[in-house]
Amino acid sequence: MNSQAIRSSQLERIDISSLPKRLDNQILLIFGLLAIIGLIMVTSASIGVADAQLSDPFYYGKRQFLRLLLGILLMWVAYRIPTRIWKNNGMILMLSSLFLLALVLVPGVGHTVNGSTRWLDLIIFTVQVSEIAKLFLIIYLSGYLIRRCEEMQSGLMGFVKPMIILAMASGLLLLEPDFGAAAVLLMTGLGMIFLGGVQFKQFIVFVIGTLSIMVLLVLASPYRMARVTSFLDPWADPFSSGFQLTQSLIAIGSGGIYGTGLGGSIQKLFYLPEAHTDFLFAIYSEEFGLIGAVFLILIYAWFVLRCFQIGKTALNKSKPFGAYLVYGVGLLVSIQALINMGVNMGALPTKGLTLPLISYGGNSILIMS
């Protein structure tokens, strides 16, 4: 047998689906733009707080940079793992996410910050379990939509089964409480199921039912009800329940069309709480104005559009798992970004969600990368 025949025989035995695929240049460019904007804005928004509290004005900026480097490393590792491994272990990842969400609620295990128990304290660092759960459940659903495709499109049980998983995960998140993460997870899951071809009538009925339950949960909780009422009229109590939102609106309004310039924000100087985390978009809008805000929104829109283009290409090449996976990631990032910006602009109640790849937050940066 000649050398050419030997090489051909060897290639036939290689599982082509297990080989790493080429990285998409547009996604890399978008990631780079968001990461650079985030690094600059975290440094700018936190410089006063970091200097006053830690005597190091660049403390949060340096930590953001290190987390970005670690996120890039994890992104490369995930890229090198064959797709079939993610696909075959979706059930294990899903069960792991439910276990972690339950574990964080165990007294003495979960770490509580500002009244919410969302973190596992691992001595060296803390882990926000909801960020891991979002990714793991997307991987699980991507595999489920392939395995149960016919059942999803023809019967009720194919739709109910993944919704039970989503309901369990969302319920555990509500117990933390983390209403924002529960909403993002549920909407991302519903979006993936819709793209999977579920019957439209069943989907609409479940969406209406889910919205009704969410409204009841808000009405039944004084904590959530206070957030909703302060969101509807933050100026009614601008120094208490509506303080954060009013300061955010002042920041956005102060930016005007062109902004005050990088570093020129006033609201970040101890007026707006969480300026470098949940409300970074407000500081960004103050410093870069309406033009900068529209530019950032267009970057996220570009990311979502590119994800759906990649997903469509994957489906055309008979790679449904990869397609649903990229659909899920696109939905996750876009929904969370939309909610975060909506909260900053007073269009939605305060949720406690970060702006993907922009806001300061170790777990969010690592998982989103």
Q: How many structural domains are formed by the residues?
A: 2
Estimated radius of gyration: 22 Å
Shape: globular
Strand content: under 5%
- Average predicted local confidence, pLDDT: 87
Unreliable stretches: 1-20
Helix-strand pattern:
HHHHHEEEHHHHHHHHHH
**Total DSSP E strands:** 3
Q: Which structural class matches the secondary elements?
A: mainly alpha
Rounded to the nearest angstrom, the distance between the terminal CA atoms is 47 Å
DSSP summary: helix tally:
15
- The strands making up the biggest β-sheet line up spatially as 1-2-3
Instruction: Tell me the major beta sheet.
Output: 3 strands, antiparallel
As a percent range, the share of helical residues equals: 55-70%
